Amino acid sequence: MKKLFPFSQSKIEEARDSSARIVDSLIPFIEARSTASVERAILRLLGVDKATPQGQPWANVIVEKLLEKDLLGDGVAYWVGQALLEKDAPVPQLAEAVVAGRRELGNEVSPKAAEVQEALTPHIRQAVQSLESRSREREAMLKRLGEGPSPLLYVIVATGNIHEDIVQAKSAVMLGADCIAVIRSTGQSLMDYVPHGSTTEGYGGTYATQENFRLMRQAMDEAGEEAGRYVRLVNYSSGLCMPEIAAIGALERLDMMLNDSMYGILFRDINMQRTFVDQYFSRMILAFSDMFINTGEDNYLTTADAYEQSHTVIASQLINEQFALRAGMKPARIGLGHAFEMNPDIEDGLLWEIAQAELVRQIFPQCPIKYMPPTKYMTGNIFKGHLLNAMFNMTSILTGQSIHLVGILTEALHTPFMHDRYLALENARYIFNSARHLRDEIVVNPSGRMVKRAEEVLDSTVELLREIRQTGLMKAIEKGAFAEISRNMVGGKGLEGVFVKTSRYLNPFVAAFSRTEASLA
Amino acid sequence: MKKLFPFSQSKIEEARDSSARIVDSLIPFIEARSTASVERAILRLLGVDKATPQGQPWANVIVEKLLEKDLLGDGVAYWVGQALLEKDAPVPQLAEAVVAGRRELGNEVSPKAAEVQEALTPHIRQAVQSLESRSREREAMLKRLGEGPSPLLYVIVATGNIHEDIVQAKSAVMLGADCIAVIRSTGQSLMDYVPHGSTTEGYGGTYATQENFRLMRQAMDEAGEEAGRYVRLVNYSSGLCMPEIAAIGALERLDMMLNDSMYGILFRDINMQRTFVDQYFSRMILAFSDMFINTGEDNYLTTADAYEQSHTVIASQLINEQFALRAGMKPARIGLGHAFEMNPDIEDGLLWEIAQAELVRQIFPQCPIKYMPPTKYMTGNIFKGHLLNAMFNMTSILTGQSIHLVGILTEALHTPFMHDRYLALENARYIFNSARHLRDEIVVNPSGRMVKRAEEVLDSTVELLREIRQTGLMKAIEKGAFAEISRNMVGGKGLEGVFVKTSRYLNPFVAAFSRTEASLA
Amino acid sequence: MRAGLKSVKPYGDTMGDGAVQLSFTLPLDDVDQAREGGRLLALKMGLENPRVVFAKRLGREFVFLVVYGASKHSLDVSSLQVSKLDVVLMSHEEIREFVRSRIGRKIRVMGACLGTDAHTVGIDAVLSMKGYAGHKGLESYPDFEVSNLGAQVAPADLVEKARQSCPDALLISQVVTQKDIHRATLSRFLDYLDASGERSKYVLIAGGPGLTHPLAKELGYDAGFGAGTVPEQVASYIVQELARRKGK
Amino acid sequence: MRAGLKSVKPYGDTMGDGAVQLSFTLPLDDVDQAREGGRLLALKMGLENPRVVFAKRLGREFVFLVVYGASKHSLDVSSLQVSKLDVVLMSHEEIREFVRSRIGRKIRVMGACLGTDAHTVGIDAVLSMKGYAGHKGLESYPDFEVSNLGAQVAPADLVEKARQSCPDALLISQVVTQKDIHRATLSRFLDYLDASGERSKYVLIAGGPGLTHPLAKELGYDAGFGAGTVPEQVASYIVQELARRKGK
Ligand code: B12
Ligand code: B12
Ligand SMILES: Cc1ncc(COP(=O)(O)O)c(C=O)c1O
Ligand SMILES: Cc1ncc(COP(=O)(O)O)c(C=O)c1O
User: Fold this and answer.
1) Does ligand 4 lie within 6 Å of residue B184's CB atom?
2) Nearest to B186 among D64, D118, D121 (CB)
3) Is the peptide bond before A151 cis (omega within 30 degrees of 0)?
4) What domains lie within chain B, and their CATH numbers?
5) How far is C36 from chain B (nearest CA, A)?
């Protein structure tokens, strides 16, 4: 990869090294715990995808039953294994019976771990195979259809109604979109269950449900065939149901997930223990399913000042990277987020944006960077907004970003109308094409303003990570190291869903994923 | 001046040398001739600014009378001098009497050149002084008020009604405009007289009249005081009345004139002899009055393809430069025109625009380059149009242009509405500010696509000028060397107004301008 | 050039020309049909000589149009009522003076992003020390005691929290407006308050980029604040309203 | 999701939502007054819940506004008449065939930019060898004889030139439309033609970015061509019209 800036690699190494230690020191804590959502994800991977007539997902019913009996510490897999030992059956069938009260979980049939494992094995294998077949499908389609030139054009749909979303998404694909993200309804991230079925009533977005995923996947496969390129589908493995949504997304062949090791903590006040544990397993699922993650550092800049807080973005990216690597993700799937959010009135603001974008690019040469458009300084002046997006597009192509979230001129007004998205895609496509090889053409003045700025940001990052390494990540978050937000270890939502694993705790997917990967490698 | 591209100066020198020879070989032809419009300009400089009740300017009436008598070959100044010898009076008073038929021109009172000269001298001196006082006024105001940062933001008003124009222009100044050009009504360029008085009925623009100039000057002086910067006023010394409009513009303290040595020939089918003679004297007036010219090479690209014909733009700029130097203009006043007119669908189109703009900048380091916005590929999609303008703005600040004609999103639809101009100024101001020092920050890859492209254009320019030097400029125009348009030496409009000077022909301003300049220097 | 205030029309470049730009998408497949449809729609909207200057297919059944035309409607602005909040804008200093002289005690305000809304930047802009656009928020006012409950506070919880600490004013932020969720949430909250008969205990203030004072009034709030609000405006209103209520 | 063709409304993100964007300037000094004026104007235009989302002063007496709202108008497209030229689009080849079989002689056309208009690119696009957007112009058609008079041809001169060489069709370009000068010039030309009783001798075609077929008809021309016209369309029309006239 071409580099526009000259940098001492050693500073980058120091920063990365700090992040590795920060993350490493949390892993034992994480590995000692599981959560309600992790357990539900296990059930969903095993095919438990239905809900009660009242809309309560079977996965939730079952996990709650175990919780009530105080048996969740062993893991849902342990008790499913026991039930299968008692009487083998497809897991969904077992689940139905449990939900209906016809069978019960929690009867210990055998105390031997090996036997429980064995009872589970064919079911796990089947689950793993169905995930694998989804990856293979994707691979084949990508090979056959190909994809758009880099950066990929990523747009959102967010009508609240999955059927309208499909109409909007099809139009977007025809107009050049490569990735379609279905934004979730406000509030979903704090729901401790995944709604069921197709939905038509969301606000600011559409509920993430397995059926909605399926409908959109089907529509986008059709649209992709027509357009002659594979359309990537994006959703949110984020909030209180991180691992579950990773699971259903993997099952429905989604391609990317918004997934961040700290976003929920900072921006949704989700308990940090919960998030750290959830993100770990969710990323294992995503890694195994060859999916991309997109981290959420862009959000820092919607509350804090982009010029002042640039270094926190990079520090967080480094931490996200380490968490992802620990969960088995390949760098090529770690889409680190950042954003074009500086005040458009700053003199030379574009220079600082270029400096930041290039810095990110150079620190993570193997990661596909997800670049987010201006949102904070967008206003009702849609014409001006269109220009902010143009400069964002320009910066993106100049600095070689990979996943380009197309900025929409009506950002400050409403979730995008169909023609807003058209104009936005036209904007990006015009500028990308017109400046296609600009990056090859220029070299940056090594003693200029941009390099100086990037160096300052890098220095502050090194400094910040050094501090965090000393205090530890949880304490650092308590102290407000990120986004000027401070969160407490036992505060926030969802702590009640975190538990310490017993010694016989079982999550056979962890082993299955790494075994299969190893056998594939 | 910083240079982005490495260039062999020798090619540039060869091109410039060719142009000098091309122009030099036309000077004797030009100096042997005068035109009706040159003669009317002389009268206007002498204060003859009224019109008959039917709207026929006195200047025209008088020149026609001499023409009828076949006495124009001596120059109007010669016969005015004779009349003054007979009976001295302010020239306007004399003119009134002539127009009214109370006095006649054409009576030879003295055959001695020196006596005629002497009779004219106080009147010429007065005229020259009033021009000088206008320049001094400008200088003082510029010193007191200052002007905007480079590039100057140049916008047009074109309502057809001078009073509406003033309203629009005032708004533009408040929103950041530095230069206001009052576009002329369609058709004025082919009128062989300058209309009289304030006007409210133009199409696609407002008539250039001395009174309209005065009204707008006054309004812009007021607006400039309020905004705290000097506002430059622009009009067209172009068409069949080049020298006359230069004269009235100078008298009303306009600051810039569209003025091109070949535009009228090519784009208005004005006879080439007429244009070459007219442009020469018009530029003498402008040079003396310390005014800028803006040449019209941008027009080539509205008919011909910008990628294919880039070299004709540069060849024409070099010729325009030489003509201007011959007329006594300083390089710092020669605003050479070019434009951002490539097809926005070309891959890397922006690179070619940057290459061209930088090439122009480096060939004419002392000239204030007038950079024209996209027009040809503007459509009813005003949102897309706004983006073309954004990339134009970006290119302008990156390549250090000086006079920036602000592109307007509704270019394809109508002459600008007030808010169109606002949005356009906002566009330019945002991008200029945000990328203020981008030029300092980058270096261009010397073996890259942009430099290669610029070199090709320069090579073609050298080649083209070499050919023109061989054939001569008039023949080259006949052969369609510029804008794919061919014009004949005796074709086009206005040839009837060209005449060969007699041996006693007199235009005392030519001498007065150079004398005064010399005495000032 | 000036038009009378009795018949004001949009202005492009000639007084009275009525120049208006429109854009919208029609759910039609055929571009020519959509162009004609766009023209007719513009006529229905009262535009004369509408020109469809751009048309682009966005998908199988949609065409985007840009239209220009001359509005024949005119406004009588001489009688136009701009429904503004009845409040005198005071400075930080003046507010302090006002509270000390007219109210004589600390003022307690409670803020929240109601319902599922998690956009805290707006309410923080009004309440926090840091404030907005250089204007410090209510926390910086010595006579204000601020409690900011942050994001996603359920209506019932807010009623309860308010009951516990009895603030003078409740400041509610609503940023998401899709499908009028802000209206629904704001109304629901008042229903809860009414149910417990407590509506009149507080000065009820709603804010957010989609809010206006008239809209807030319509929904049953005492005041509404929209985009670009600065803390002084809110503080001025609160203290003046409290003085007014006290005076009664 | 599809709406019936009987009541088509603009579409934003929900069928029937009526979403429309507007922008215009009001000649008012006060921004709040202008906002309210803009809202009222939008109501008059039939927009429900209009939101003034942006307002900016442009000078002492002008405020620019951006407004969004939901149009309550709907269109019955099932009965919508798109006034199209009655012509079958043929290729270069087909036109040649058509002329040879149905007309049997060369076709002579004369083009000009009428009046003060000097925009020749459009007429050249239709007539010249080079053509437009990859479509060669009428000069490239073996059975067409083209005379292109270029820019700024006075109406009287064109009548005279036409009388001298008797072309089958006159092609007139009008690009400048400010203050409806194109309408005036096009009408004036017909007056001249009428004066000499020659209107029916030619197929009369007007073109330009501001022209549409209905407008040309209204002014008394046989056909009108707007933005994006390609030469084949014009040639197809001319030969079919000539065949039709011959048939009569
Ligand atoms: C920042 C931001 C976020 C941040 C919020 C971080 C945070 N802690 O607040 C993050 C990234 C988390 C976020 C998430 C979402 N967002 Co958001 N977000 C924005 C954004 C970019 C800026 C909002 C902002 O901070 N404005 C700055 C503040 C200062 O302005 P303000 O809120 O208008 O406040 C001022 C006034 O309105 C007033 N005011 C506001 N409240 C109050 C209250 C009182 C009492 C008073 C007196 C005054 C007052 O005073 C303030 C100062 O002047 C806007 C787009 C934009 N440019 O406006 C979208 C936007 C608001 N978000 C939107 C959406 C849909 C969402 C999501 C639902 C998307 C999704 N499905 O994931 C989520 C979920 C959030 C949720 N559950 O509510 C939409 C809303 C669409 C609509 N009109 O319905 C917008 C418009 C973007 C878009 N076009 O889609 N968002
Ligand atoms: C190029 C250009 C010029 C060139 C013209 C060079 C030339 N030899 O033609 C120059 C620089 C000289 C020029 C000058 C002026 N121009 Co000019 N110009 C343009 C520009 C940028 C492009 C026009 C063009 O070439 N379009 C490309 C052609 C292919 O498209 P077209 O003309 O629409 O033609 C197509 C169809 O309409 C149709 N068609 C056209 N004619 C005909 C005829 C027939 C018979 C048929 C069948 C079809 C047909 O077929 C063509 C192919 O599809 C437009 C802005 C724009 N982007 O549109 C302004 C524009 C047209 N100009 C404008 C103006 C005002 C002027 C001036 C009056 C400005 C001035 N005061 O100095 C002058 C004077 C010209 C005059 N006396 O007429 C305005 C007109 C405003 C209005 N609506 O009234 C425009 C819109 C710019 C603006 N926003 O102000 N201009
Ligand atoms: C990582 C991540 N998760 C989730 C979201 C979306 O918000 P919510 O949590 O309300 O779904 C974002 C938004 O940018 C994000 O970056
Ligand atoms: C040198 C010059 N003169 C004049 C004009 C304007 O046209 P007209 O000759 O119709 O006034 C232009 C337009 O760009 C120009 O460049």
Assistant:
1) yes
2) D118
3) yes
4) 33-126+514-520 (no CATH), 154-452 (3.20.20.440)
5) 16
